Amino acid sequence: MKQMETKGYGYFRKTKAHGLVCGIALAGALTLSTTTFADEATTLNPATNLTTLQTPPTADQTQLAHQAGHQSGELVSDVSNTEWDNAVTTAQEAGVTVKQSDKVTHDSLSSAQADLEKQTKAVTEATTKQEANTTAINQAVSENKAIDQANHDEKARVDALNTKGEADTKAKNEAGQAQVDAQNKQAQEAADAMNAQLKADYEAKLTEIKQIESENEAIRQRNQQASQATHQANQAAQAAYQEKLAEIERIKAENATIRDRNAKAQQEAERQNQALQAAYEAKLAEIKQIEADNEAIRQSNQAAQAGSDSTNEQRQKEYEAKLAAYNQAVQAKAEAEKKLLNQVDFSIEAKANGVDNTKYGNSIMTATTQSDGSFVFKHDMIDGQKTIGYGKLTGKVNHHYVANKDGSITAVIDSVTFNTYEYENVAKNSAVNKNIVFRIVSINGDEIYSKPHDGETTFKESLNKTITLNKEFTLQPHTSTPNIQLFQLHDDWIYNTHGSALVAYKNNNDAVPNIVIPSKPVPPTPGKVTPTPEKPVPPTPVKPEAVKPVLEQEKPVPEAPQKPTDDVPNLEKEKPVPPTPVEPEAIKPDLKSFTPEIYNPIKPVVKPHVTVPEKVVYEVMVHPVQVKQTPTNVKSVTNSDQVNIDGQLVPKGSTVTWELVNAALKAGRQDITSYELTDPLPDGFELDVTATQTLSPDWVITTDEAGKVSLKASQTLLDDLNAKRDQDVEVPKVSLVGRLVNDAGTYHNTFKTVVTTPTGSYTVTSNTPVIYTPGNDPKTPRNPGGDNPTPHDNLIQPTKTIVDDKGQSIDGKSVLPNSTLTYVAKQDFDQYKGMTAAKESVMKGFIYVDDYKDEAIDGHSLVVNSIKAANGDDVTNLLEMRHVLSQDTLDDKLKALIKASGISPVGEFYMWVAKDPAAFYKAYVQKGLDITYNLSFKLKQEFKKGDITNQTYQLDMGNGYYGNVVVNHLPKLTVHKDVLDKEGGQSINAGTVKVGDEVTYRLEGWVVPTNRSYDLFEYKFVDQLQQTHDLYLKDSVVAKVDITLSDGTVIAKGSNLAQYTETVYNKETGQYELAFKQDFLAKVVRSSEFGADAFVVVKRIKAGDVYNTADFFVNGNKVKTETVVTHTPENPRPVTPQKATPKAPALPSTGEQGGSVLTVLGAALLSLLGLVGLKKRQQ
């Protein structure tokens, strides 16, 4: 809706006791102090219920919202372990130096215990080493003492053995020397004989050698020459050989370098393989540890799930009980509706228009039907002499019934299905014209099927066509519908044979009470345990493949060349020279020497001392551990459909639930001495303490005057939290249930959790969800300077105006008794665009109320010109219209709804109720499409004067809003008639008039007021003169007020208006009529008054009582004047009249302007009397 630039909102509320009550809400009300604001300030929306204006957030609420997500304090508990304590004591007793470092904080009990276990293991290992060192030293010292004694005993034994051995050796040596001396003497004698023979053989051999050497010298000279030639050839071969050897050595050197590089590559590959294998084994160890941790987590989760399953099972049982009650009601309603539907008669018949023509053979069409809507139409085909064939159409009328709450039945004809058309030829077609066409035509004249043929061929066609009708007929109990035509059949040829399908329904039911079905229970949302997530187990690593070095290929080493063999010259062979004999040495006899035996004394075997280990003092570092946890908290908000509505626009009055969820407390915690939640609820959230306590049974709930809610854990809950401190424990959530009671509300909500232990406390602040209700003035945005969270929102203002036939507003203007009042009202939905509403709210419905003034407006004259949505949709059929003569006639549900909404229509009123609230909400309300009602009423005939008021209300999802009151004024149409004398213009009503006297009838017209709602097209006087007694002479007409025309011309009061009129006098009947011309009246602007007085001059021509009454007409409205009377006696004897000077005739008094308007018209006017009659006078 477009916002008007106004400082206040001029809405009025109609009440029985006090009429119109002003409900202007001025902007100045916003300047009230915070204290009085909550008591006195009301919403800027014209609300009829829940009208309090939401106060700004308190300092507590603002401060808490700014602390969202903040944590302070800590939850810390020491973790002890008997094994750790014992291990440290044992280590110290064993001589281990045990040092203690600062305390280490862990985030879980399992981590702390693992730390202690690791320390215990290290201390135990140090103790074992220390004890082993001490034992080894003591054992070595003991062993060395035993070795010293054994070595002493060994020395005494060896000394005795050595003394005996030395004596035995000396005797043995003396015997051996004597034997050797005798043997040496014999050997010397044999040697001397042999030496003499050897000398003779030596000298003979020397002579032979000298002869051979002389011959060989000659051979050598010859051989020297041959050798020189051979040597040169051998040198060349040797050079080539050496060159090949050098090449081989070069390649060998290169291959040595390659082998060196390959060796280094092999070393690097082995190093990498070792690293990969180490990483692989470390990963396997990590996986094994994680799997152990996860097993502990799974056991904890299974215990939590068991508790949740128990709660869910109880909720399911409650839901099934409610569902059974609901299903029972549904079944009862279905049986009642079935009974209703069984009492509905459905009939279908075919109306066939045959051809009765003897020349062409009396062609006919017949129809047969079944109760389920199936039908068969048959017709014959005649060529003028005989039947040449038969046609048959089959199909079905598809319909169903709907039972209504008031006992009526709605019969719905959904569609008609055409199955087949077949034609059977039985004779030859003798007609000259063989152009036959069988057609099916809709009731709108649209062709559905057409089959041209010549009548001489048998055929059958499947149509399988369905036309949608969607016709609805509501039958009150014991009523019937007339015959309803569905389609037409045309058998077009020489003579056309047409048929129609007609259906009818009859409701044989009595009105029955409506069975109310309770709301279908929503299946409970199973409580979900948020399991502690298991640590992700890394995938099992792939066992590393050995890195293979890229080795270089050695170059092939050529085969070693064959060492060249020096060519040997063909030399003469020297004679062999016997070897020079060795000068014989004298043969020496083999004289034996005697080596006396030396006695080696026995050395004792001395055992060495074992090594005494060095004294080692082992040192180990330990530290105490503790568990620290910082549990978080989260707030969310849902509607009654359990839909998250954080950041959404929701209906005022709707039920919402703030969910306060705290993270589980971890194992290893201290005793919890207090667990408290503090929630400064936003203003305008009305807490349902009973529902909240039901959903949050573990908490003790208290509230203060400022709306702050405190929730403390009950003793039972504290006992549960402290029962198994070596395990994680879930904290039950809190559900704060309530409703929103402000228009334009912004509901931010944050809560704080404080956990107290014997050693301290921990505080954490939640996030801040927000929801909004519609009705916010765009001039005061919710988020000044930032994004608008509800961009389509604005004030909720149903509006109404009254318009003329040109569509211009005539609010506040006057009307005539026969006026048709056309009201254009808007049901304001644009602020709801994008809203999220629960079914509970939507099913409260959408209602528009037109509350007209009962005394003035004829409610039965209502004409609904249109009801359209902003997108152009005609929504008339989506709304149920009710003419409410009294609220007592409404059903209990509507009574309660109107009472709760606070709207206060007075007396009779009309209301339009959405038939299907859910569909209507989705199609129009949620899209923000306003609904405009164009309605016309007539005024009651008995209402003659006063204000005509009309007000609108809209009721959206249980919330009422009043619209502006439009006002029109019906002034009383007052006209007068008087009879004046000729001389002074004085009234002579009820007086005497002599025969022959002239009198003037004064017709006082009604002054049409300024600021009116209509243009003038009729302003007329009709005076029924008593023509037997009065002779019409003349007339005149003058302005009663200043008159302004559309071109700016002003006709002054008292001006002669004859030129703008037409006068007709019927001398036969005496009826006088003076009417203003329509083209002149059309020039009179609405802002100008208009009024005229007419004067009719007559002459009394007969004695008697003369009565006169006039009628006045303005735009079709007729008003009678009072009746005037004059008395005329019989004429006396004639008296000769005396000549006298006539007085100037006086104008009758018109108020402000004096003087006479009845001038002497002279003989010229009198001469025209004979021409008046039925002739119109054009001035």
TrEMBL record:
Residues 1-38 form the signal peptide. Keywords: Cell wall, Membrane, Peptidoglycan-anchor, Secreted, Signal, Transmembrane, Transmembrane helix. Residues 533-542 have a biased composition (Pro residues). InterPro entries: Adh_isopep-form_adh_dom, AgI/II_N, Antigen_C, BspA_v, Cross-wall-target_lipo_motif, LPXTG_anchor. Residues 564-576 have a biased composition (Basic and acidic residues). Residues 1147-1179 form the Gram-positive cocci surface proteins LPxTG domain. Pfam families: Adhesin_P1_N (PF18652), AgI_II_C2 (PF17998), Antigen_C (PF16364), BspA_v (PF18220), Gram_pos_anchor (PF00746). The chain crosses the membrane at residues 1155-1174. It comes from the Bacteria. Residues 298-311 have a biased composition (Polar residues). Residues 298-317, 517-589, 766-794, 1127-1151 are annotated as: Disordered. This is Putative cell surface protein. It comes from Streptococcus equi subsp. zooepidemicus.
